[in-house]
Automatic annotation (TrEMBL), chain A:
Residues 21-77 form the DNA replication complex GINS protein PSF3 N-terminal domain. Component of the GINS complex. Keywords: DNA replication, Nucleus. The GINS complex plays an essential role in the initiation of DNA replication. This is DNA replication complex GINS protein PSF3.
UniProtKB/TrEMBL annotation, chain B:
The keyword Transport does not apply. The gene is Gins1. Belongs to the GINS1/PSF1 family. Required for correct functioning of the GINS complex, a complex that plays an essential role in the initiation of DNA replication, and progression of DNA replication forks. GINS complex is a core component of CDC45-MCM-GINS (CMG) helicase, the molecular machine that unwinds template DNA during replication, and around which the replisome is built. PANTHER family: DNA REPLICATION COMPLEX GINS PROTEIN PSF1, PARTNER OF SLD5. This is DNA replication complex GINS protein PSF1. Component of the GINS complex which is a heterotetramer of GINS1, GINS2, GINS3 and GINS4. Forms a stable subcomplex with GINS4. GINS complex interacts with DNA primase in vitro. Component of the CMG helicase complex, a hexameric ring of related MCM2-7 subunits stabilized by CDC45 and the tetrameric GINS complex. GO terms for biological process: DNA strand elongation involved in mitotic DNA replication. Residues 43-128 form the GINS subunit domain.
Amino acid sequence: MSEAYFPVESGALGPEENFLSLDDILMSQEKLPVRVETPMPRLGAFFLERGAGAESDYALPQGTKIELPLWLAKGLFDNKRRILSVEIPKIYQEGWRTVFSADANVVDLHKMGPRFYGFGSQLLHFDSPENADISQCLLQVSSVKY
Amino acid sequence: MFCEKAMELVRELHRAPEGQLPAFNEDGLRQVLEEMKALYEQNQSDVNEAKSAGRGDLIPTIKFRHCSLLRNRRCTVAYLYDRLLRIRALRWEYGSVLPNALRFHMSAEEMEWFNHYKKSLATYMRSLGGDEGLDITQDMKPPKSLYIEVRCLKDYGEFEVDDGTSVLLKKNSQHFLPRWKCEQLIRQGVLEHVLS
């Protein structure tokens, strides 16, 4: 059966995900920490843990930190950071990058995040000042691991 | 969060091993479409309010819902497309008549697609190799020769070959026959391909 079945492959390591790739859809479901820059009304139903209740005009206040899936973060992001700003997840930050450059082999990537490379590559969309270092780290880890 | 049901559809397919075709999740799809309708209507209403009552603060919310609509669409289209890729593979694995169990897993539209695909493939194969055409679904790799050595596993009786002559397929007899004529009998367990 699998001999003639050719699913759409992931494009996450390149500039854009592949729209039809199931792998990319699953990868972009993973969450990352964001900071709300402008209140978003009428979405209280999602954020019940913030004490929103079912009030219809509850607006998620500015400055709130929440975790959103990558697809949503990408969709709401713009370079003026009017709606939200994105925080780079710890595994891609400087502390971990130092660990990786020392010895990437000690890190169990399956535990840290099964889609480390794809997710990391797509993070570059958020124009972080750390982008050059993040991409460098991704390249380095993949060359060691393979 | 929105799009949970849509993700369920994607996960369901992703979980099915080796390109197997799970049953068509009509109910799941219906729920995704309902969610999309609700999102769209809420957005229509908020857009009108933003314009008429100057509620520019609604714009991020509108964008949020719009992203969810796009995501639902992506998941749905990817679900349907991946299923077609699996259904296409069925033609190559099972031939042009599918086992009933598989047919029940397909929607009416998917069955129609399968029939169209079958026809296109047949037209293409007829156009190859001169007058008779060439059945390329027989082997996943190009065959080494057009004739193969087969052994008969059970008594079958007379079997007509292309040039009009016939062979008697008796248990344990061995023959040198055109590959394509034997394929079906091999699948049925009457003949066995003897590798030399």
